[in-house]
Amino acid sequence: MSDKAPWITFRPELKVLDCTVRDGGLVNAHQFSDAFVSAVYRACVDAGIDYMEIGYKNSVKTFPKEKFGPWRHCDEADLRRVVGDHDPEKTGLKLVAMADAGKSDWETQIVPAAESPLSTIRVAFYAHQVSEAVDMINHAHGLGYETTANLMAVSNITEEEIDTVLDAIAPTPATTMVIVDSFGYLYREQIDRLYKKYTTALQGTGKEIGIHAHNNLQLAFANTIEAIILGCNRVDATLFGFGRGAGNCHTELLLGFLRNPKFEMRPVIEVIQNYIQPLRKELDWGPSIPYNITGQLNQHPRSAIEWREGATPDDFLGFYDKVVAEI
């Protein structure tokens, strides 16, 4: 038996993406103050995090500004008001926005990378939207952005659909293909199978595999660790797990696990204490019985979110009876 402990180490090629503002914004329609976004940005810089997903590049027609905050659209003026003349070479942090297929005016909304603080566009799509996703990836790449492909709700589609998507993404310039557990349904064995499927299909393309885990079964951190052990070099997390429904893998847990000496924990704890924890008084997220139930049933958490916002949020039995009756 080896006298070394290989898990107490780090891979310098492994990059962390904090998606607190983008994913957490799904809880409050991205109605964050500039001070909040600035604090998360500064924490990501000071902590040595590699990427910060600051919001969406989604359509104003679909998400009107009178209902949704600026981080649903990431207009260039809003970005620069908060991050100024952000320079990834000086800060070590790349800024990211997500563009949804079917919800983004990507042909006109995304400016050339040389004119934006953003470095990366993550293209999110469902299997039936893969043709548009390929066009979006090629378009953003042509504008000078690093791009990624995020196939959503992978637990809810067939093997043939996954294969079709991977075949379509393989020749694109996307640098990363992300395993996205949208419903928080996957267990370790399924992470293993998907990782092997993705790597086999994308072999020789130079693409990295990423992981974006949701916490409905309280397995987001465990599944992220499993993906890292298998070889994932692009991993997502949010501060204090802040995100829609049951939330996400916790950034503070992930940084502690990675053992990379470049990461500084104190800025992360500070922003959690001063900005994330106070949101608990007004916003609901994190593991609870309704989110656990939708995770076990491989369902979108929208029904649990609606229940938690209703008159009897802690009537877990009532929610269980309702969703089971609808199956």
Notes on the protein architecture:
This protein has an eight-stranded parallel barrel, surrounded by five helices. It is α/β, with parallel strands linked by helices and 327 residues long. Helices cover 39% and strands 14% of the residues. The model has no long low-confidence stretch (mean pLDDT 96). It has helices at 20-24, 34-47, 76-83, 88-91, 106-109, 130-142, 159-169, 188-201, 220-230, 251-258, 266-276, 289-296, 302-308, 316-325, and strands at residues 15-18, 51-56, 94-100, 118-125, 146-151, 176-181, 208-213, 234-237. The protein has 14 helices and eight strands. α8 links the parallel β6 and β7 (208-213). The chain starts with 14 loop residues before the first strand and ends with a helix. The protein has two domains: 15-281, TIM Barrel (Alpha-Beta Barrel); 292-325, no CATH class.
Q: Any chance you could write out the topology, listing elements then pairs?
A:
Elements: E1 15-18, H1 20-24, H2 34-47, E2 51-56, H3 76-83, H4 88-91, E3 94-100, H5 106-109, E4 118-125, H6 130-142, E5 146-151, H7 159-169, E6 176-181, H8 188-201, E7 208-213, H9 220-230, E8 234-237, H10 251-258, H11 266-276, H12 289-296, H13 302-308, H14 316-325
Parallel strand pairs: 1-2, 1-8, 2-3, 3-4, 4-5, 5-6, 6-7, 7-8
Helix pairs in contact: 2-11, 8-9, 12-13, 12-14
Question: What are the defining features of this structure?
Answer:
eight-stranded parallel beta barrel; 327 residues; alpha/beta; 14 helices; globular; TIM Barrel; 14% strand
